[in-house]
Amino acid sequence: MWLPGGCASRCVLSSFGRRIFGFSFHLPSARTCNTAAFMPEAAGFEGVSSRSALQEFSVASSEGFWAAVARQRLSWISPFHTVQDCDLSRGKIKWFEGGKLNVSVNCLDRHVHTCPERVALIWERDEPGSEVKVTYRQLLETTCRVGNLLRRHGVKRGDCVTIYMPPCPLAVASMLACARIGAAHNVVFAGFSAEALAERIRDAQSSTIITVNQGVRGGKVTELKKTVDTAVQSCPAVQQVFVAMRTENPVVMTARDVHMEEEMLKEDVVCEPAAMDSEDTLFLLYTSGSTGKPKGLVHTQAGYLLYAALTHRYVFDYHDGDVFGCVADIGWITGHSYSVYGPLANGGTTVLFESTPIYPDPGRYWETVQRLKINQFYGAPTAIRLLLKYGDQWVHKYDRSTLKTLGSVGEPINTEAWEWYHRVVGDGRCPVVDTWWQTETGGICIAPRPSDPDAEIVPGMAMRPFFGIKPVLMDTEGNVVTSNNTSGALCIAQPWPGMARTIHKNHQRFTETYCQPYPGYFFTGDGAYRSQEGYYQITGRLDDVINVSGHRIGTAEIEDVVNQCSSVAESAVVGYSHNIKGQGVYVFVVLKKSVEVQEANVSKQLNDMVSKKIAKYACPDCIQFVRRLPKTRSGKIMRRVLRKVVECELNGLGDLSTLDDPAVVQEIIEGHRDLLSKQQPR
Ligand code: AMP
Questions:
Q1: pLDDT of residue 9
Q2: How far is the CA of 409 from the centre of ligand 1 (A)?
Q3: Cα dist from 334 to 238, 337, 379, 409, 410, whole Å
Q4: Any atom of ligand 1 within 6 Å of the Cβ of 438
């Protein structure tokens, strides 16, 4: 395994101090960092003598750049013959064709050859101080046992296995075991309800599920196996459920269920890896879109792994021997790319965090940093905002001197949270990288690092495109905006290896959503501002998707559930600014005329329904009962107006002339005012 050393972090610190505090650290000059020491492949790129030149080269000579890093950083069974074959206008994306490799070999075997006893995973269990360390050798053995177990139970190359587990070594081994035998995995966040899980199992056509008896998070036990039992009742294709034991409490086992650990012990610790084509599916991951149906985004083998590894190495300045602490759940793309694939491809040591930021108290993250000696900490703005409110003493209590880089992901980080993260958590000496990306992009696309060693970092801005990424802004007519100090729809102008290839069983939806809005470009669904200096700042979603605590949820998905309530005639869901969650869920409900119900009872019923059918995080923060919704003459709900009302932007309601009955808006404004005075929804 190769990871370059060098002086990147010292140079980062020097520039950072200058920009943020107006002073510089006394460190060697930035010029002592040469580009080939930073990225050895750069030695072969003509005319590249600085890191910004490297970024320009990676975009202008994308094929040359990606071919060189793919050859250098992945272990191939047979080499690729074509670097890329992409046509964004048709949604055709292929990288490294002809190449064969195995992702689990890249994440495990090659490190076992060089450093078998290096720690691959540190499982930070819910109970503080009970962490479990797993070496590369142990993780390979466990992965092989799971791979053999799956094979013995008939799982074949091309099948899709659904994994419904909290972050734990066996979940990682299960993901890698799928990769080893050529099956795809479909990890479903263990906070999703039985119905949401069932929908994802059916859509993914999984006949095999892996789960645990119970989950443990924040001191609470959740009945994950029972949730799977309920889910599979509506999934006739499911043939087997492997059940691992997270707690000692037995659960009811049926003929379909297999005791995972017991059966694994019967398996060999060697498992022949499948030779996979670069473009075979590695995994599906479901995410919300603007319709009620979640999309199973498809990521493939070589391009995804390479992109996760390269971004992990360069955005966070990860070096051999560092302990990388991404606290996201493995059920989200952040957990896939930065708890599992990126760090393991780089031979790194990665933390799997099972708990919450406030269990057993608000010092949990920083106590973990001290105990595990974490060097890079990667978390979400919602948690930072929450912890900020508990005060600095919870941070000061613990030694954070190992920290080198702080990362933020999932939603925009407001300046107050950014400053606190930088000043209090990082003692003002760690670069904060606000990383913008999405399930669709596979890895980080815009972040302050990597950059020239003396480059500034501006609080709350994702700033700079990663290698090979060419962001563009589009105006309302669909033209590329070339000037700076301007906003637009954020697109990416050329393909990169980490991008999703399609939506499972629905390529048409993939092209319609991402490729057709701006033909020839990948449309992200986000808006962005480009500053005078050319830095990017994400301004939020442009579609009907809201971001609650860093998790995407389509307003249509919640409306679908709310409308199933027998007393509800119709509803409209919008997001609103929430000072901890980023966005909260605001539901407008019109009750059926014929029913006599207490609003409080309906509210409770709606909360229960959303929690049961989707997940707790999607539950309404605020429910406003209205007589009518604002609609156009053609009957479309004008959510734009509702959004303005809940944000109290009454001067910006815009053109109301197309409304069927403009008087309805006044009623809603008054109802909202009443509600605010009663319950302070923020
Ligand atoms: P997901 O696919 O669930 O990771 O959600 C991706 C979405 O989260 C993006 O489309 C953005 O709307 C939002 N997002 C992620 N990271 C950032 C960031 N650093 N700044 C602003 N928004 C972000």
A1: 29
A2: 7
A3: 28, 5, 10, 8, 8
A4: yes
